[in-house]
Amino acid sequence: MSPTVTTSSEANGNVSAATARAAASAAATAEAAGPQPVTMAKALNTALADAMHADPSVLVFGEDVGMLGGVFRITDGLTATFGEQRCFDTPLAESGIVGMAVGMAINGMRPVIEMQFDAFAYPAFEQIVSHVAKMHNRTKGAVKLPMVIRVPYAGGIGGVEHHCDSSESYYAHTAGLKVFTPATVADAYRMLREAIDSDDPVMFMEPKKLYWSKDQVDLDELRSQHSANAKAGKSSEGRAAVARPGTDATLIAYGPSVPTALAAAEAAAAEGRSLEVIDVRTIVPFDDETVSASVRKTGRAVVIAEAHGFASVSSEIVARVQERCFHHLAAPIRRVTGFDIPYPAPKLEKYYLPGVDRILDAVDDLQWEN
Amino acid sequence: MTISADHTAPDQASKAPVEDALSEAAKKFGITAEDYMLPARHQIQMVDPDGRLKPEGEQGTEPGHEYPLPGDDELMAAYEQLVVGRRVNDQNSALVRQGRMAVYPSSHGQEACQVAAALCLSEGDWMFPTYRDAVAVMARGVDPVQAMTIFRGDWHSGFDPHEHKVGIQCTPLTTQLLHAVGVAHAAKLRGESTVVLAMCGDGATSEGDFHEALNFAAVFHLPVIFFVQNNKYAISVPLSHQSVAPSLAHKAVGYGMAGERVDGNDVVALLAVLDRAVKLAREGSGPLLVEANTYRMQAHTNADDDTRYRENSEVAEWRAKDPVNRMRTYLTDRGLLDDDVESRTLEKAEAVATQLRDGLSEDVPVDPQELFRHVFAKPTPQLKEQSAMLADELARDASSQNSGSQEAGK
Predict the structure, then answer these.
(1) Which residues are registered as beta bridge partners of A196?
(2) CA-CA distance, B168 to B149, in Å (whole number)?
């Protein structure tokens, strides 16, 4: 997996992070011949189109996903290519979208539905918690719900309120849901294809500030890899990635926080400190093995997430690492998360979002001997 | 699987087809689209509470809202299911009193609705029932003991929804209406002629999903029949606190679909109205809303005390409108029902009651490992760990019990 990520959004207000990313990206471009610069949005769009080509039971619907192609253009061109039967707009009602998808999945379809923004998914909460998550269990597996709920989530885009929530903890806390969140362009393609192939319902959390980030990727290559993996029954579900190897401490991040963690590691390297960055990728199922192996190796860890820290995915990660790595830890595990406040107004979000400096402060605090 | 190509092509997309279909349906009956959507002025009733067939002019029908009398075979099948349904309700309530079942929301008094909901559908159609619709689920062919698993307490649902095309009995109110819409939508995209009957009660019409389901079904022009059993109470809250609409059936108009009211204790009228609704939906006239005017004769469940919120006189009034007695009188007067048929019907009902008693008295062994087995199609490492932890706990319990009993045996 490529550790290089660029982003057109500098909304996290961290110039050194942006510079580090730009430098890394330039290096990657120089050495890559076949791969092209591709945005995460394009990778997701391609994954949807490829899945629809591969399987006529894959349907895409939601609000503004048809002629407009989605407010983030992730479904761009799908209606034109596949017709209104396969990619269509629904009435403006999120519970209706999810509930109808449940019925379609019961009756042989693989719906991929879009919740326009994180906070707009809340009207669908009952359908998600009481039905999407439980149907397989309550029918002893007689009813499978192979559906994907795509949620553009998290902040960093200067959005007004109700457009920037990090809602992953609600879903991760709900037994019966799988929760994926890509941080790279290649993963966006790979993981969305795998989510659509999955017989379990997947909450697919898309870090919206990374939609226009670019990586050097070869979409054809990703497509063939996916076909080969699917044939072999292989999936990367439940596998975290070492986004950057290191030896002194581990930064554990997911989704929108991965590029920030990489920028922090880059900055730390300049100061002579080697940080390993783990990209969690699938929050559920969680890859205890990869995360614990890294922390056992480095003996120090910082967990980074945009979401509020209290009762969150980040607190779960700290608990799991502590249970598994206690005797290898040289210092208490630190967290750099959003504050426990409602998501701030655009001009204040830079104070809220975990940035490189705050991460480096936490790293400095890990009881170094020298 | 292929999706039928004979649907509107993307470049022809417009809102026109739905409006056309409404006027087309109206044209079929020689009335305006408004009159097609509006329920008839009075509820449809064919057999009165005393079991007499009403003269055609008094059945509540009006131009475009006429309903032919169902055939004798259908009526006899309905009577048998009514008797069985009543026996099922009373047997299950008895099993709760005896502590063999956790809870049973009885449809005593609503059996005509239950039976008609099942009988109006064809084999390939789907039904989405609520927790109070066990009799409808059984009338659709689901094994009675499997249908009662949810209340026996050893699992949440005891039958495979795909086998009889019956959704699991749904507790979160009206959420299943959207699943019905989805099933119908998927079938329509594949060019199948499936009709879906979605059931809910009067209280449920206040829920947001009621609105979303009706609107989605109308906008996508899907063959869904929304069947509301207005039994007058949502646990303790009367209908007047849920809605001040002229009737629940009138709500259809706001969605651009047709609504109808029917005497929910008259299985003849119910079958007539629902049979036509199914036919219209299958022919492509879009969704319909049917409100059945009935009454919950017993408390919400055994945990409820209905004397706190309603008068005995009201209950007595409805007892006189009983759906089973009414049908017995009607069929006897028609010469279709005699002592022989009656006793054979009672035997069938008794056989189902025996099946329930035996099945629900049986102490079904539960497997603790099932807790983890069905959460996901592809299990997670975390659940495998937790499953192993429980297995270990149970093994240690078992071995300490064994050594304990060996000690005691010495």
Answers:
(1) none
(2) 11
Give chain A's length.
370
Give the pLDDT confidence score for residue B150 in this predicted structure.
Answer: 86
What single string gives the DSSP state of each residue in B7-73?
A: SPPGGG--SHHHHHHHHHHHHHHTS-HHHHHSPPSS-B-SB-TTSPBPPGGGSS--TT---PPPPHH
DSSP-based three-state secondary structure for B64: coil
**How many separate helices (H) and strands (E) can be counted in chain A?**
14, 14
Task: Find the mean pLDDT for residues B203-226.
Answer: 98
Does a structural domain hold residue B59?
yes
Are the C-beta atoms of residues A154 and A255 closer than 8 Å to each other? yes
Q: Residue B1 pLDDT > 80, yes or no?
A: no
Across the interface, whether the CB atoms of A131 and B172 are under 8 A apart is answered: yes
Whether residue A150 contacts residue A193, with contact meaning beta carbons closer than 8 Å, is answered with: no
> Which amino acid is present at B4?
S
Tokens at B213, concatenated: 């389901």
Q: How far apart are the C-alpha atoms of B25 and B27, rounded to whole Å?
A: 5
What is the rounded average pLDDT of the residues B6-29? 63
Residue A64 lies in a domain: yes
Tell me, what's the ipTM?
0.94
E strand or H helix that includes residue B255: helix B251-255
Tell me, yes or no, whether B6 lies in a domain: no
Of A131, A163, A226, A308, which residue is the catalytic one? Answer: A163
pLDDT at B148 over 70: yes
CB B350, CB B90: distance < 8 Å: no
Q: How far apart are CA B30 and CA B35, in angstroms?
A: 10
Quote the pLDDT of residue B23: 85
CB B261 within 8 A of CB B43: yes
The token duo for B14 is 């417009």
Q: How many CA atoms lie within 13 A of A217 on its CB side?
A: 31
- pLDDT at residue A112 is higher than 60: yes
As a whole number, mean pLDDT of residues A276-286 equals 98
Within 8 A of B374 by CB-CB distance, chain A residues are 136-137, 139-141
CA distance A28 to chain B (A): 35
- Mutation site for B-interface testing, chosen from A94, A107, A234 by largest number of B Cβ within 10 Å: A107
> Coil, helix or strand for B335?
coil
Phi-psi region of A337 (alpha: psi -120 to 50; beta: other; left: phi over 0): beta
Same domain membership, residue A114 and residue A52: yes
* CB neighbour class for A98 (10 Å; exposed up to 12, middle 13-18, buried from 19): buried
A contacts of B255 (beta carbons < 8 Å): none
What is the total count of domains within chain B?
2
At what angle are helices A356-364 and A257-270 packed, to 10 degrees? 60
Tokens describing residue B92: 């299950």
Residue at A85 is within a domain = yes
Structural domain ending residue among the three candidates A231, A256, A274: A231
Cβ–Cβ of A106/B182 closer than 8 Å? yes
